[in-house]
Every structure is written in structure tokens, then in C-alpha cells.
Amino acid sequence: MTSIQANLELLQAGGKGSEDDRQGVDSALSSTKRMSGLVSDLLLLARADAGRRVATKDLDLVAIAAGAIEEVQPLAGDRRIDSRLEGPLPLAGQPGRAPRLIRNLLENAVRHTPERSTVELTARRDGDEALLEVVDDGPGIPADMESQVFRSLRPGRWPG
Questions:
Q1: CA 87 to chain centroid
Q2: What are the beta bridge partners of residue 93?
Q3: What does the alpha-carbon distance between residue 98 and residue 103 come to, in Å, rounded to a whole number?
């Protein structure tokens, strides 16, 4: 994946070829980046299922959430992404994993929410815990999947 991405980036930087060629390279590069993210996510899940712990460091949930909004906004189309980010909200987590998890939540909300609706992301302190919440007008998570999606988190710790 890395080799394909690097070659596509070289083609994109060269800027030669027809408009159709450039659009094809842009599309392939975007798909490659998305696939690389999926592979990374699957690797993280496999490590978590195997019980492997990855080193954590101090993070700011508000800063990560704001960055995720910037990345997902271009995908939102006619949907509006509002935020209520009260911080900073320090927590211990995995620097590579935390942004991906929030991006995934926002991307799912955008993907499953009707056009011209609002997705709201809130990050705030709730007692000793940091609370991250995504609210939208989509169909929601099926009841039989909730136990797999939601789990209790220790205060101040990011999952994994």
C-alpha cells in the first residue's frame, strides 16, 4: 500500500497528463489512503483482540476532536457539523488511534445522516471523566450491536 501511495503521489506531483488522467490519479490516491487507514484500523483491532497493549501518552481530546472535524468536513456535503468542545480535556491514549476513532465516528454519522441535517460532536468533562458524544439524525446503532460498540471506559483513559 505504501509503495502504491508513493507512486501515485509522484504522479500527482508531476502534474502531467490529461484532466482525466489527473482525476484518475487523485481518485486512486484517495482510495489508497482510505484503504491504508482501514488496514491500520484492522491491525489495531487484531492487537486489541490479542490483548496487546500499546504505549500511551498524554493527549488533548478537544484538540483531537477539532482536527477530526476539519478532516471530515469536506465529506459532509450538505450536512453541517457543529461542535461543542470544552477543554482542554487531557487523557492518556494512543496518538495514532485516538484521531482515527473520532474520524470514524464522524464519518459514520455523515454517511448515515440525511442531507441538510446536522451532526453534533461534543467533548466535555463529566465529573472525573472526559465525555465524547456524536449526535445525528441517522438510524442509530441496532440494539443487538450496542454491546459491541459501547463499553465502559476507565476515567481519563482512551480505549486500548
A1: 19
A2: 57
A3: 9
> Are residues 35 and 96 both part of a single domain?
no
Least confident of 14-23, 53-62, 117-126: 14-23
Condensed to tens digits (0 to 9), the pLDDT of residues 65-88 reads 999 999 899 889 999 999 999 879
Is beta strand 90-93 parallel, antiparallel or unpaired with respect to 129-135? Answer: unpaired
- Full domain range(s) for residue 97: 57-149
- Within 10 angstroms of residue 59's Cβ, the number of other Cβ atoms is 21
For 156, other C-beta atoms within 10 Å of its C-beta total: 14
> Residues 123, 62, 65, 150: is their CA dihedral positive or negative?
negative
What's the domain count of the chain? 2
Q: Decide if 94 contacts 104 (C-beta within 8 A).
A: no
How many whole angstroms separate alpha carbon 96 and alpha carbon 68?
12
